[in-house]
Design goal:
single chain; alpha+beta; C8orf32 fold; 14 helices; 23 strands; elongated
């Protein structure tokens, strides 16, 4: 037999017997863990993998990191572009495999789904508003509300307010004045545009409330600008005028005038909170808090001026304000709802139920709040409640309303403020608005504490009333023309015989009298008007109220000379 035929048969027998793998043309003819090499399937090993540019059939033929491309093992390369023309995928290439990767973007505007993080403002197509609503600030709302937002945005209210705040922070008074004037004019135009939304339209109650509340917000922001302008003008006066021209009292009054605008701003938000509760939101709350904190800071400045003036009477009396808008609202509603004799009790209960007792911070100075702040924030201490109640009483026409300073612990110093009213018949009643079980709480006949406070006669009041005064009289006295020691024009000083004569202190013992130390009033001579003690062995001549030297017991009023007999 031909030796070549025998060789072929032998090889076949060997293959059949398993010594060699099965015949193959390419690797795909072999098992998953085999490679086609020299026409036979063989187990794959690291030594058998094909290196770069060697022939291959599938990627498994090539060594790690290479891929089979055009029957050659090659390093993988990324295509020129992996763009799949779909906006909701992020397209990239895997550099290891050279293949494109398409990662879904979520949320994605344009996929037809309104996903978390999307709203009508940034993707109206995916998050459309229902019929009758339009999108404003990312929320579907009715057309009127959307127009309200548009007016505020187009008027640049927030940006111009921020400019004023920046100038305020830097203390640039001239800029504050100019910028606040321009900004308040823009807000006034916006208020007019808001008002026109109510003209000629069939509006729902909710839409009308939205318009009214937005108007009040704009008005509050305008009042805030008026406040900053007023404070800037006050500071300029303080810087440019000397102390005689611009004393503490004038400075105080100007600050209070400026602060009244901020008080009005707080009141407008207070109105929204009470009359348009459905419109009240976090934005209103944040604005209210900001106004209140600024108000509190300036009021502390006012209280420091009171301390410098050296009179707590001023501090309390000047804060009593029967013309405050909140006071007017509460007092007028109460007088309309109650009989005249029941109004004081109703107002007392109103203050007690409306104000939570909170001590002054740090006790650095006993400072008192204006009545509007106490009512709108619902917090204050005894002097705050007393000032509020006195303001309500005066607005309601309660005659003879007094602020009363009280010594509660018997140390002859007052440590409490309350309200006293002299009623018909001469009874002086104490209206105590700070009503706690441990203090100032008279029990009823059965020894029980009443649920609500009641006025008590001064004789039955637990604290010792040291001094009562009418706030309006203190204010009148404070604002009147005075001499240097505080004596009013046309009045005698507390130190006789001095008299305030149109700003000049003169000796006038005839009008003002004398004290015990210097009992004699000289009506003539060189000492005319003075209180004197007749000198050693001198003789006081009553007829002419003059002192003559020893031995001179006669006086000639024409020559104004003393003489002997």
């Amino acid at each position: 037999m031909n030796k070549y035929i025998l060789l072929i048969l032998a090889i076949g027998l060997l293959a059949f017997s398993g010594c060699m793998g099965k015949l193959c043309d390419k690797t795909t003819d072999c098992g998953s863990d085999e490679i086609c090499k020299d026409g036979f399937c063989a187990k794959l090993s690291e030594q058998q993998c094909r290196t770069e540019d060697q022939t291959c059939d599938i990627p498994a033929d090539c060594c790690q990191g290479l891929t089979c491309d055009g029957n050659k093992c090659k390093m993988p390369t990324c295509p020129a572009s992996c763009d799949d023309n779909y906006s909701c995928t992020q397209d990239s290439c895997n550099a290891t495999s050279g293949s494109c990767v398409h990662t879904l973007i979520q949320p994605c505007c344009g996929n037809g789904m309104c996903e978390q993080g999307e709203d009508c403002g940034d993707c109206l197509n995916d998050c459309p508003c229902t019929t009758g609503l339009v999108c404003g600030h990312g929320v579907c709302m009715d057309e009127i509300t959307a127009e309200l937002y548009s007016i505020t945005e187009n008027s640049s209210v927030e940006s111009c307010r921020q400019e004023v705040f920046n100038a305020w922070t830097l203390g640039k008074n001239d800029e504050i004045i100019t910028l606040s004037e321009n900004c308040s004019a823009g807000i006034s135009r916006a208020i007019g545009q808001v008002q026109t939304l109510k003209s000629g339209r069939d509006l729902s109650d909710e839409q009308r409330d939205a318009i009214d509340s937005e108007r009040l917000v704009l008005e509050s922001e305008r009042e805030e600008l008026y406040f900053m302008k007023g404070m800037a003008e006050t500071d300029k006066n303080k810087e440019t005028m000397d102390e005689e021209e611009y004393d503490n009292l004038m400075y105080l009054e100007d600050i209070k005038d400026a602060l009244s605008h901020l008080e009005s701003a707080i009141y407008k938000l207070y109105t929204i909170k009470n009359d348009y509760a459905d419109q009240w939101d976090d934005t209103h709350e944040a604005l209210f808090t900001a106004y209140a904190e600024r108000y509190r800071g300036v009021n502390q400045q006012i209280n420091a001026l009171y301390d410098e003036m050296g009179s707590y009477d001023y501090k309390y009396a000047f804060q009593v304000d029967p013309n405050d808008p909140v006071v007017i609202e509460i007092a007028d509603a109460t007088t309309a709802a109650y009989a005249v004799e029941d109004v004081p009790q109703a107002l007392l209960e109103k203050v007690y139920l409306s104000v939570q007792y909170v001590s002054d911070p740090d006790w650095q100075t006993d400072w008192v709040q204006p009545p509007a702040y106490t009512l709108m924030t619902g917090k204050g201490d005894c002097d705050d409640s007393a000032v509020l109640l006195a303001s309500l009483f005066r607005r309601a026409g309660v005659e003879e309303t007094n602020l009363c300073e009280v010594d509660t612990n018997g140390d002859d110093e007052y440590d409490h403020l309350t309200v006293g009213v002299e009623r018909d018949g001469g009874t002086f009643l104490i209206y105590e608005s700070v009503w706690s079980p441990g203090d100032y709480l008279p029990l009823d006949e059965d020894g029980n504490a009443p649920l609500l406070p009641r006025p008590v006669p001064q004789a039955d009041y637990p604290g010792r009333i040291m001094y009562c005064y009418k706030s309006e009289e203190v204010i009148t006295s404070a604002l009147a023309d005075k001499c240097d020691d505080g004596t009013l024009y046309g009045q005698c000083s507390e130190d006789p015989p001095w008299f305030c004569d149109n700003g000049e202190m003169i000796a006038d013992c005839i009008t003002c009298g004398c004290d015990q130390e210097y009992p004699n009033c000289a009506k003539t001579g060189d000492d005319k008007g003075l209180c004197i003690v007749c000198f050693d062995n001198g003789e006081w001549i009553d007829e002419y109220a003059v002192c003559c030297p020893e031995g001179y017991d006669r006086y000639n009023p024409y020559t104004e000379l003393c003489r002997k007999d």
